[in-house]
Amino acid sequence: MVEQIQETYFPKILTFLCNWCGYAGADYAGVSRYQYPPSIRVIRVMCSGRIQPSLILDAFNRGTDGVMVCGCHIGDCHYISGNEYAEERVKKTKKILEMLRIDPNRLRLEWISASEGIKFAEVVNDFTNQLISLGPLKKES
Amino acid sequence: MADIIKSSDLDLNFIKELSKNEETKSILSCFECGMCTASCPVGEQFLLNPHQITRLASFGVSNQILDEKILRYCLTCRTCQEYCPQDVDFIEFIRLARTLLIKRGIKYEETHDGILTLISEIQANLPNGFKLPSEVIPEGYQTLKEGKTAYFLGCLPILDVVFDAYQVNLLEIAQNGIKILNKVLEQPPVVIENAKCCGHDALWKGHFDTFKKLAEHNVNEINRLGIETIVTTCAECYRTLKVDYPKYVENVKFNVIHLSELIAEKIKNDELMFSEQYDVELTYHDPCRLGRHMKVYSPPRVILNSMEENGVIFTEMEKTREYSTCCGVSCFINCNDLSKALQMDRLVEAKNVADLLITTCPKCQIHYSCMMHEKKEQPSDVMKLEISDLTNLIAKMMGLSEFKHEEGENKGVKKQIEEKKYVNLYLYDQ
Ligand code: SF4
Ligand code: SF4
Ligand code: FES
Question: Which domains does chain A have, with CATH numbers?
């Protein structure tokens, strides 16, 4: 039974990428042909400061196994302080997730600049592996 | 609402649905006197016409009523029912109508990007209740895992995180509740480890399935631990556990009391004396759920009056008891200019008679603090008002805790804003 689940389970990760850094980084990973697993679903947003906790909670409510928010490095945000807000919001959302008994490691915040294609691929790899070891969200209690 | 009713608008199924239940059936007895609209705080601003809605509903004109733009305005504050000569249960009707609306797949515009609905939905769908942060249980105090009397925290720890920008310090209420119960009960209280949200908001928003799941889980959990009495510090939990659980869930054997009732009882029996001295002029706001819904008017007043010897001067506001105004938002739908106006009026009213506003519903406290937060740039006298929960005041007077905010100045909010220390959780409210 356990083996069966492991065979069929492959995590789904909802990824919010900021237009200026995260998305460009993912693009760069693509054109440079860095390999990463097909676990992510990308939503492009103008800035990581746009992500409010309800979007993240909604994703989990609909059964996403992990959520990743990528923005520019601190100080590099094109809207000056958007990523600082994102950092604070993700921190609070993690607290809420913990109380709801969803592992806070299922939510990840990463700073990826436009030139860090390789980092993007590594992060997706790492996160996917982590989620595989955590198992599907529905099984968690 | 259109003025002309066509015969094709009539919906017999809707009337059948209404007649299923004694409470909603009462709307068929409306004789359209208009008292409800005249007394309704929303009707005053011509946003809602309860008498028109009741009339249309009794004709069965469902397509004009089951409209998100109409139903969301009602605060379910129950003021109209205080005046209705026919005892029409209007709020129960609104609740049913909202449930039907949600069944049709229509959603409301919700405040805070709908995060509170999501939180209760996630809880309803996961097998276990939420995990309490360890700070909830104050140092040096004990709680039990099983026993006769339990303290039901409700969503306090979660709301504390969500609304932490308003500095409402809801966790403090939970901590003080545990401290007080430790002192006044023979045994330390049980804190149910696996409880979920009581489901109040889900019920009144019309998410009946979510409510049902939450309620069933809580009832099972409470029965499993063999708890006989539940104490709450929240007006909404009180109403939901006491009235709505027995109505919609089977096997409800426990008894529910509000902390203010427990303490008032102890004071009447001379079992409790307040030890601390606190010179303050305060007033009390009746939350709709504890006041008009549950008719618990006197216990909080008994407590506040008994503090007279300790320096506390309790003055009633102009609108009080049955006639007190609502805090302007219920179950986090539809917060608009009207809500803000109601809040401001109430705060001014409070400031006219006192320096400290006491309430027994954490949500009222959130909404009023939000108003204060919004007006932070226009310093006025009203801004000096402090808002706190009765639980915190009792704990302070028993010498169990201090008010966390500095006295006199408007709490920590202002300081934090000046230091730009916090970030709001919601996108549109920087
Ligand atoms: S006050 Fe009662 S009887 Fe009068 S219009 Fe309103 S619901 Fe009908
Ligand atoms: S419950 Fe309150 S807001 Fe709703 S119709 Fe009655 S008085 Fe108006
Ligand atoms: S623009 Fe990239 S984080 Fe703000």
Answer: 13-132 (3.40.50)
